[in-house]
Amino acid sequence: MSQKLLAVTYIRNNKRRIAVPIISLCLCFVLTYLTGFMLSATEATFSSVYLDNAEKIQFIDLSDKALGVTTNLDPDFYEQSLEERNRVIGDLAKKLEDHDGIRQTYTAVLMGATISAIIGGVNYFIPLVEKEEVSGLLESFGTSVIEGRLPERPGEILLDRATMNNKHVQLNDYFDYDSFRDRYTIVGVLDSAWYFGCGIPAEGEINLKSIVVFSGLHDLTAELEEEQIVLGSMDAVYDYEYGKKNMKSNVTDAIGNSTKVIYGGILVILTVLLIVVCSMYLRERHNEWCLYCSIGFSRKSLYFCIMRELLFTFLTALLTGAVVIVISVLVLKGLMIDPYGLRCCYLDGVSLFRILCANVFLIGILQIPVRYALVRIRTVDAIEDDLY
What we know:
By secondary structure, this protein is of the alpha+beta class.
C-alpha cells in the first residue's frame, strides 16, 4: 500500500497511555543524573582540598628523628628543647627557599579544619604564624580580607567563606578544633576560591611548628632529600603527589565503585519495568496490528511505526528530563551546595554519557518483545485457513 502508517496518529489519540512511559523514563534519567551530581559534590570538594590547594600551598610535618633533634619531655627542659626543634625547622625552611620552584616558606603551627561533604569529610591545614607574618602569608596565597580585619591578638584567625558556611559559623564566632586547647575567634573573611585560613597561635598553645611551602612543585620529597632529610613513617609531606594518592584511594576508587552499583541497579530496575510495560502495550495492540496486516500493510511498515513511537517516547523523556534536571540542580545548588560551602560539577559529562548509553541499551532490549509481537501477528486469511 502507498499509504504510510503514522506514529503521530496513535500518540495524538493516546496521550495518557504514552505519558506513563515518558514520565517513568524521565524520572529515571533525572535520578541517574542527580545521583552523579550529588556524588560529584563530594568528589569536587575533596579534589579542591587534595589537588587545587596543593597546587598553591604545601605543608611539611617532620618528626624529631628526621630533624636530628630530641624533644625533652621533662617540664624543666621541654620549652628549651622545643625552641631548639623550631630553630632547626626554621633553618630548613630558609634553605628550601633557595630551591628552584619554591617561592616562599614559613614556619607555622598547623591547625586542621574539616570540610564535611555529602559523603564523608576532608581535612586541610590552617597555618598559625606570628602577627607580622600574616600579611605576607595572605599575599603568598593570593588572597585578602574582604570582611572584618587582620588578626592582631593570639587566638584570632581568618577563614574563607566556603569553610565558614560549611562549619556554620559567622564573623566573630568561635572556631573549635579538638586537638587545640583554645577556641579561636574568626575576625576576618578571606576572598578565596580555595579552602584556606590563617591566624595567630593562642597563648599557651603548644608551639610545635611545621613548614609551610608556597611553590609550583608537585613533589617536595626530592627537595628534602637534597637537604639530607630522610623521611620515616612519622613524617608527612602534604603536597600534590600526596593529594593525588589520597584522592584516588579515598575518593575516586570508592565513589567509582559506588556509582557503578547505583547505576547498575537503576538500569536493571528500569529494564524490567520497561519490558513489562512494553509487553502490556504490545499485547493491547495485537488485534490492531493484525488488522493492519490484513488490509495490506507489511510487518516492516508496522515495525518502523512502532520504532517511531518508541523514539518519540525516549526523546520526549530526554528533553523533559533535561528541563527537570536543570531546575533540580539549581534548587540543590541553592539549598545544599552553596549554603554548605561545597564544590560540585554542574555539567556532569559522565552521567550524561551513561544516560545516552542507557537509552541505546533500552531501545536495543525492547527489540526483543517488539520482534516477538510482530512474529505473532496473524492476518484474516491465515485465520480462515486455520478454520478450513
